Amino acid sequence: MTKTFIAALSLFAITACAQPQTGKAAPKNRNLITADEIATVSGTDAYQVIEELRPAFLQSHGGVSPHNDAPPTPLVYVDGVQAGTITALHNITASGLFSIQYLDSMQATQRYGTIAGGGAILITTKH
pTM of the prediction? Predict the structure, then answer.
């Protein structure tokens, strides 16, 4: 009887901790959008793709400074070249995207300097 009780309790605990299914598979990497994921959305530009798959990429990140009350927003880099702010994502067609990676403020600052204190969105296109 004790073995049956332990088995039933274990089964209950496992099912209680299981993630509910929402129709979409959970992303493998929360900081990377792959070509396979991009193919599943109906967005026509990079902004719409990110908005649907990882909206947190588009939020302001990092600390505020004494000279600016607004937290900095991520910078956008396309194939290694700075393209501007988040608004630049509207100029990048979804069909040309290979991957989209997000770097948090610490990673972006280490890679690009203090200008990227709000993080960075790295776009890799299909060339």
Answer: 0.73
